[in-house]
Amino acid sequence: MGKLELNKKKKKDALFTTAFELFTTKGLAKTTISDIVDQAGVAKGTFYLYFKDKYDVRNKLISHKTGELFYHAHEALARTDICDFEEQVHFIVDYILTELDRDHTLLLFISKNLSWGIFKGAFEEKMPDEDYHFYQSYLDMLSKSRVTYENPELLLFTIIELVGSSCYSCILYQQPVPLVQYRPYLHASITAIMKTFEATPA
Description:
By secondary structure, the protein is an all-alpha fold. 73% of the residues lie in helices and 0% in strands. The protein has 10 helices and no strands.
């Protein structure tokens, strides 16, 4: 990465970091673009090089934060000897749940603003100095599976929706039960979903 690219990345990272801090403390409605650029120490023109408005930075920030979560889960998975696709999915789900349980601010921010369209943006999020794309990684894992699944994108959507919606209350409010009690039921449900998507042998 050249000096110019490094400088651009530094400014964009500063905007992301500042926007996340302001959105999670002041709220989106009370945060202005001037607030973001002043605190980040960059010119307003620099902001518009990367983002259309504060809603655009919010959407890209969600994609970025979600992409980071999956990237770190992927890194952790690479350090294991887990080869079975279903076990890999369970590992990634567990890793992400643990991270969100540890960082409630991140959980609140992602859950409050997440939509499937934005989430798909996270699939394409390129991690710093890496050629990692979560969705491509997911397809690569799937291609090595001994089991064939119909409609891989719909399978992923169903698992993500289940994990996101059902664990929000368990993590933040311990309702209807704490996450530690809910995890076995969640994993059993994921296994059942994956079974539903298995392709019928020809």
